[in-house]
Amino acid sequence: MKDVIGNPLRLKSVNHISLICKSVDESINFYQNILGFIPIRRPGSFDFNGAWLFGYGIGIHLLQTMDPESIPKKKEINPKDNHLSFQCESMGTVQKCLEEMKIDYARALVEENGVKVDQLFFHDPDGFMIEICNCDNLPVIPLAGDMIRSCSRLNHDIMQQQIQVVNHI
Prior knowledge:
It comes from Pisum sativum (Garden pea). By secondary structure, this protein is of the alpha/beta class. The chain has helices at 24-33, 91-100, 151-168; strands at residues 16-21, 38-40, 50-55, 58-64, 83-87, 106-112, 115-123, 129-133. The strands form 2 sheets. It has a 4-stranded mixed sheet, covered by helices on one side. A 4-stranded mixed sheet has the order 5-8-7-6, with helices on one face. A hairpin with a 2-residue loop joins strand 6 (106-112) and strand 7 (115-123). The longest helix is centred in the C-terminal third of the chain and has 18 residues, at 151-168.
């Protein structure tokens, strides 16, 4: 049996994340008007309240909790908490917009060999952490091999390599 390298399940991409929320309407407003996702059609066979949104190549599925009080309200912005991260074109623009919208955020800085990555962290209406960064500044260097890429090129290049490996098996 040949060793399957890199993608044993033959995955293609991230499809969606699901988030339980206190208010589907409030969460739709946040993901649509702050992060730029668009609502999309959700199967009518579902017998529970929710919504689907799509943007940046990923879906967000919002699921209405049956017990809104069961979702603890997070007050502290902790960059080490679970989060979803987005790259942006301008950290200054993001910071200005968050301030104008009166959204509390925390700043962080990652520095490696003179390369700096700025990060802004904030919560969605249910306390799920969102990160906005200029992560493309930081090269992605695999632990094995000599391939060095930016975040935005890495996924494309890895997928091309995986296609080549599959075609040779």
